[in-house]
Amino acid sequence: MPTFRIIINGEPTEETVTGTTYMDAYFLAVQAVPQAYKNDFKLEEEKSE
Fold it and tell me: Could you count the other beta carbons within 10 Å of the beta carbon of residue 45?
């Protein structure tokens, strides 16, 4: 499953979410992101080594 790093205001955070699709990961991230940033975050897929 892909892992996505949460990006808030263009800055990567230490938090990641894993989902079978981008949308699955997005809904998990909505629960993890502070309320003030719910509209200001994006996910960036981490490349596996």
Answer: 11
Cα three-residue angle 13-28-2, rounded to 5 degrees: 75
The pair of three-digit structure tokens given for residue 4, joined into one six-digit string: 């996505």
CA distance 47 to 35: 28
Give Cβ neighbours of residue 37 (< 8 Å, ≥ 6 apart). 8, 9
Instruction: Please choose, from the candidates 2, 8, 9, 1, the residue with its C-alpha nearest in 3D space to the C-alpha of residue 32.
Output: 8
List, in sequence order, every residue forming a beta bridge with 3; answer none if it has no partner. Answer: 18
**pLDDT above 90 for 39:** no
Q: pTM for the whole thing?
A: 0.83
C-alpha–C-alpha distance, residues 35 and 44, integer Å: 20
